[in-house]
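Incident log, structure service

09:12 report received: a user says their structure output differs between two submissions of the same chain.
09:20 pulled the input from the user's history:
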Amino acid sequence: MLNPWSDVNTSGYMFAGAPLGQTYCNLYCLSRIIDQHDLESCFELGTWYGALSTFLGLHLPTITADIKDQRDVHTIELHSRLGVEFRQADCHNHEVLKGIFADLKRPTLVFCDGIYKEREFLLLVPFLQPGDIIGVHDVGTEFRPDDPGVVSCISRSGLFPLESEEASCSMYWIKK
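09:34 re-ran on a clean worker, output below:
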């Protein structure tokens, strides 16, 4: 079953045998960000079926978390081989996030792709350290960077947008 939150542009995409909630253009943009920045790890909030976690795990040590584990046995085995760590947890809980961020090497790539992207973004920004990059998927539909709460959070936190070809593909990227 495909994600009911997917739009017509992303349904049907696959990566490593699992449904992918992003487009292949998104994977290209992610690989450019990873290649152009000195990152040591990745945290993905919103695992879904684990395809993006697999992609990220090919590039960086990755922790992925979701309230529910929807990965199939093939993806679980692949994650085990890649060292992708899945945590089944409520990532809207400050203590859960505190534990995850304590286990990440810095600088890290943080990717918001759960159901409540604005809320996730606002929860995750306080955990960022200099050099960390945070990205949000589904810009314009599920996340609006011009929302007053988001704008205020960005200005208070000393974040700045990545302004290049890499910061496209319906994703929003900012760096601490």
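09:41 both user submissions now match this output. Likely a transient worker issue. Closing.
09:42 reviewer note: DSSP finds six helices and nine strands in the chain. Confidence is low (pLDDT under 50) at residues 1-10.
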